[in-house]
Amino acid sequence: MRTPRIHILTPITGADAYVPSQFADLVGTFVTISCSAISRGPASIESVADEMMAGPEILRSCLALAADGVEAIVIDCFGDPGVAAARELLSIPVIGPGQSSLHRAAQLADRVGVVTMLDNVLPLVRDMGLRAGLDGRLCSVRALDIPVLALEGEHFAQALREQALAAVRDDGAEALILGCTGMFGVSERLSTYLTGEIGTYIPVVDPISSAVLDAVALARLGLSHSKRAYINPPARTRESILTLR
């Protein structure tokens, strides 16, 4: 069976992109992973304004990747910036970690919680839950009050443990989602901590890992988004801002 090419696009500047080896244990030899970051745009995405500023470069990059033969693209941000627009322009799968992880968690529990970074993104996360069809099931959305670029160190770890535990104990969450791809790599440790504190297994979904696996599955299955749902835009709307360089 062929090995599909999956690309992870980080939609911020000034940060290192992933390296393929970080996903080796996840995907094995079933897929070829490549990674890059956009060259122009915001340094982090923490608002709708940030998403809009990243949008043109996300779409330019996606068009270039598809032209180069990539078979599925993952947009590396929990807010799924540019995903719907890229699906209109492309016929290959474009996966958002937010949508992917929300649906993944909904397979694991009836009541789902999200722990994200800042208060100003809480309404965005709640709206994502509604659009994912989780109205009534997204029971907890909590923020760490830590910016994306500071999600590291013991201060971050302590805040994450506190808010995650509160989401389970106080809000009734039965499964949690890390509401920022900048938290990559901590899901297993957090699940172990929560399971120890609560006394029963609490799954924690890592959004970028979930999205990568969805991209692999769709590429292997030969599936992509419906073009009745994501209709190709009229040619006149494709302004020079999206011209491949």
Walk me through what this model shows.
Belongs to the HyuE racemase family. It comes from Sphingosinicella xenopeptidilytica. This is Aspartate/glutamate racemase family protein. InterPro entries: Asp/Glu/hydantoin_racemase (IPR015942), Hydantoin_racemase-like (IPR052186), Iso_Racemase_Enz_sf (IPR053714). The protein is an alpha/beta fold and 245 residues long. It is 39% helix and 14% strand. It is built from 8 helices and 8 strands, in the order βαβαβαβαβαβαβαβα. The chain has helices at 24-27, 48-67, 83-89, 97-106, 122-131, 153-169, 187-198, 207-221, and strands spanning 5-10, 32-37, 72-75, 94-95, 112-116, 138-143, 175-178, 204-205. The radius of gyration is 18 Å and the shape is globular.
Fold blueprint:
Layout lengths: L4 E6 L13 H4 L4 E6 L10 H20 L4 E4 L7 H7 L4 E2 L1 H10 L5 E5 L5 H10 L6 E6 L9 H17 L5 E4 L8 H12 L5 E2 L1 H15 L24
Parallel strand pairs: 1-2, 1-3, 3-4, 5-6, 5-7, 7-8
Number of helices: 8
- Mean residue pLDDT: 93
Domains, number: 2
Shape: globular
Could you estimate the helical fraction of the residues in percent? 25-40%
CATH architecture of the largest domain: 3-Layer(aba) Sandwich
**CATH-defined topology of the largest domain:** Rossmann fold
The total of beta strands comes to 8
Look at the structure and give the CATH class of the largest domain. Answer: Alpha Beta
Describe the strand arrangement of the main beta sheet, using strand numbers: 2-1-3-4
Distance between the termini: 33 Å
- Rg computed from alpha carbons, rounded to a whole number of angstroms: 18 Å
Order of helices and strands: EHEHEHEHEHEHEHEH
Contiguous low-pLDDT stretches (5 residues minimum) are none
